[in-house]
Amino acid sequence: MKNDQKNARPEPADEAPDVPGFRTWGGIYGFAFAVFVAVVAALTLFTRAFA
Amino acid sequence: MNVIDWLVLLGTILGIVAYGTWRTRHTDNLNTYLKGNSTTKWGTIGLSVMATQASTITYLSLPGVASENGIAFIQNYFGLPLALIVVCAVFLPIYRRLGVYTAYEYLGQRFDQKTRLLGAGLFVLQRGLQAGITIYAPAIILATVLGWRLDLTIVCTGLLAIVYTVTGGSAAVNLTQKWQMAVIFGGMVTAFVVLLTKLPADALHIAGAMGKLNAVDFTPDPKLRYTVWTGILGGFFLSLSYFGTDQSQVQRYIGGARLREGRLGLMFNAVLKIPMQFFIVILGALLFVFYQLQPNTPVLFNQVQWQQQVAGPQGATFRAIEEKHAVLHADKQDKIRAWVTAHDSGDAKAEGAARAALSAAQKASLAVRNEARDTLQAADPAAKKTKDSDYVFISFILTQLPHGVIGLLLAVMFSSALSSKAGELNALGTTSTIDLWRHFRPLAAHDEARNVRVAKWLTALWGLFAIGFALFVSFAENLIEALNIVASIFYPALLGVFVVAFFLKHVKGSAVFWAAIAAQIVVLVIFFFGKAYPAWEIGYLWLNPIGCAACVLFSLGLQAVMPREVKPSSVSEP
Fold first, then answer.
1. Nearest CA to B77 among B280, B287, B285, B283?
2. Which residue of B has its CA nearest to A5?
3. I want to staple B241 with a disulfide (CB 3.0 to 4.6 A). Which of B399, B483, B495, B556 is the partner?
């Protein structure tokens, strides 16, 4: 079935994230991953401190 | 609840609904109706994704679960940030490039119509049933505690969601979810602050000593439900299924002004989701401490049904349990004080002995709570429909918060119910229109006005179905748990179809179609085998990688032995 989306328009496959401090999406993903690792590490320390 | 609470509750809920309906009342463009306003920014998308995932159960029940079982549930979300990175990098750009309205439309372009119908059918089946539960689960708790009529609570909540979802479609859902999340954040933070003012400085240490703060568990035992490993691996596949293939989520992020907005909206969730859930479970752990230190903590928090029995013919039995609990509770408080003294003294030996005594007191108290629960359920089978932990947070709200804040917290519960409900109805209406109705009426695809009309009608019909189903399930016991399990075992095969679509370019429609059905059977066999032989039962999160891997492997095997198909020519491969 053909898509009839009228407002669809081509967009760059990998446009810049336009976020201060990040030039590529790889940098954004790396930041999200680093936050994840930091959160798990913090939770591990939290468990050791209180449990 | 007094007049102020009612004003806050009704003003907040009706105000947001009226605002969303008014602002989107002229939505007659199919793209806006199904994908939302084309100017939507990443912040709105991020909040909308968060609001759709977090239902009332998250805010009402999760603090109670943490209060009862500790905060280990947080590990369930460990795979979520990783999955969102994959969705951002792989799924979203393809959906945007192909300009699809639904995730299953992509399957039709990549494979064939039968695979698209399989994906859409699985989604509609499980989400349609879930839609009833989304209304029913909070309604039965709030109706029980507040003395409201259950059927009226269900009907009013459902109709409110229908009104603005039908009127403005995805644009209205995005708009209202933003404000509903503001109410939710405001209310939860207020409750947290009030709770903190009622706790001693060493509340966290007490919670830890009583086993409620084990946030991470590295034990490599597949039978344990929540460990770091089940969270990362099982949670990754579960989140990938949910965010990448469930239309209720896909619909939230495929719109927006640019690809960037959807990506940043998802990254917003990747960064904030675990901290947000930690905030909710730590609230539960602190609620546990609060009730340990209260002199008159009830044996069960479902006091409405409990007090009915106390006043009934079996009242003597229930009062005897209350007296037993009161003695054990007082003894436990002595043990807590003894542990705090030993802990503050820095004497490790004394602290260990005090902790062991406290643990024994906790076990004795828990045994009485279990006896109370069994006795209540035997006397009143209606009590089986909910867990006592569901009543912990609402009890705190109604008895400890000032008037006005009570209304705000009830607005939190209804806002979360409406936001997740609206997201579901929006997705069901869209999938039914694009993947099912247009499949059988291909010529109507070019009539935009008719498509919008049909989408509105189908959204309304799904809403009415959800209300009807919620009214029906009030007669069934444990159906919520059963349906949650049904939903979780349908995801893996569907994810496997999408993984094949994205990464295995040579696999064609027939191979993946039959592979998905075979993988679904494998998941069902593992699940029911575990139920029949509990010694072999595995944590349900493991079904996600197993089912997905089975679908991928079966697809490869079948493709190797099946005759080659002619691939549809209109699809640009990733």
1. B280
2. B31
3. B495
